[in-house]
Amino acid sequence: MASERVALASYDIPEQHIDKRSWESIEQSFASLCVILANFSGIVLARVLSTRPNPNICYLVEFALIVVPTVLFVTVASSYSVHFVALMMVLLLLYLLRARPLSRAKSRAQFQLGTRPFVLTLMRSMTHLITAICILAIDFASFHRPYRKSRLFGAQLMDTGIGLFVVTMGLVSRRPRNCADLRRSIWRSSLPLILLGIARVVAILIVGYGQDEHEYGRHLNAFFTLGLTKFFGSLFCFLPRNDTHLLPLGLGLLVCHQLALTLGGISEYVMNEDLPRSTFVSANREGLFSLPGFVAIYLLSICLSRWLVSKTSLSYNEIVGKLRSLLIISVLCWLLMAGSAYAVGIARVTCNLGYVSWMMFLITSMLCLSIFIFHLVIDDDNETLGDIESLEKSPLIATGSGNAKDRGDLLVICNSLNMNGLVFFLLANILTGGVNIFLEPEYRSDPASVFILLAYMLVVTSVAHLLYKTGIRIA
């Protein structure tokens, strides 16, 4: 019975059937965006207010400004996320009017994005943080019900998890140039994820922990989806001769996938709960038939990343041009998402056109906002944010007296999660299972649930921070 409660609690199951063409998905997408923006606002506040060179103090300040509000906004303070985002927008507008940072930005000779821009690290860390919070918070009664995964169609907050993981995986990946690159991508990235998927299946069977088969299927899980997406995505990336060909390849795959879902009857096959799961394919139809959509997301994300870093040093006019292009792409993706919500719906379980366009809207809009904030507004003269790869490979050294370089190293939690994101996510999954087995979260009061969530996040982020501070990079 406990496993059944866990499985059913993971989804927002409506009392009546909701037409996939309902505009409710658009409203849900905006509610999800508000939580993401609230998390982003905490990062901006931490970047502005945390000016101490001591990494431990920076960690505590960031935890208070980033993690604590996000925990509250998905539980007891869910109705205030919109107000918080609105307040931050007003403060940003006042700052733009009074400090005129854009005037100073115009006088700068160049802006250093680097080969691995800071904003890509930011997207990865935000995805890890929000997902880690939600996978445990959902088991508490205090979790905001509308944020739960959609069983069929919908655009809830937890529907973003696997999609944004694939997006960020693509953003930091490169197209394999030769067979050696392809083998390296498969052996070092794809195979470990698939092995983790197998390990999770074995662990679930041993412990008896509940898994809802309507998410990825009876045997598959998120690790399989990520590993297989990386595998097939690497194979597809090996076909074109340059990065620009990834765009038509990804779009073509997406169109073929949607045609198969709609005209081939695959969407109805996947979502029909009355069909038996008698074979491996039918038992895992959600995980298997959504793969083409996730591979399309992966290809489009690589293309977006390669375009973003096509020139590492930009003038003011060039960076404004990048922002304008990102804004246009974001608007186009939103229009496509809105049209898809009415025509074919937004479905994570099939990763259809609506879902892919939603993911691309989220990532392009957040990249546009991040570049604007961190490179034009609050980043006067900082080149350390341009290339984060050096920060990934070395511990945070508490030196200096608060100059621009030191301030650039202050996003300790973000850099820690980027350095050992897989370790962080695995530890979060293990602790989530432990809390569900030993603490019975469904019976906890609101104050107790918030306390447990904060303690859980303190443990997982502290481990990541300790590894980062000591320069240990595992995965």
UniProtKB/TrEMBL annotation:
Keywords: Acyltransferase, Endoplasmic reticulum, GPI-anchor biosynthesis, Membrane, Transferase, Transmembrane, Transmembrane helix. It is a multi-pass membrane protein. One of its GO terms (cellular component) is endoplasmic reticulum membrane. One of its GO terms (biological process) is GPI anchor biosynthetic process. The chain crosses the membrane at residues 30-50, 57-74, 80-97, 118-141, 153-172, 193-210, 222-239, 246-267, 287-305, 326-349, 355-378, 417-438, 450-468. GO terms for molecular function: glucosaminyl-phosphatidylinositol O-acyltransferase activity. The keyword Endoplasmic reticulum applies. It comes from the Eukaryota. Signal peptide: none annotated. Its EC number is 2.3.-.-. Pathway: Glycolipid biosynthesis; glycosylphosphatidylinositol-anchor biosynthesis. It is an enzyme of class 2 (transferase). It is found in: Endoplasmic reticulum membrane; Membrane. Belongs to the PIGW family. A acetyltransferase, which acetylates the inositol ring of phosphatidylinositol during biosynthesis of GPI-anchor. PANTHER family: PHOSPHATIDYLINOSITOL-GLYCAN BIOSYNTHESIS CLASS W PROTEIN (PTHR20661). This is Phosphatidylinositol-glycan biosynthesis class W protein. The lineage of its organism: Eukaryota, Metazoa, Ecdysozoa, Arthropoda, Hexapoda.
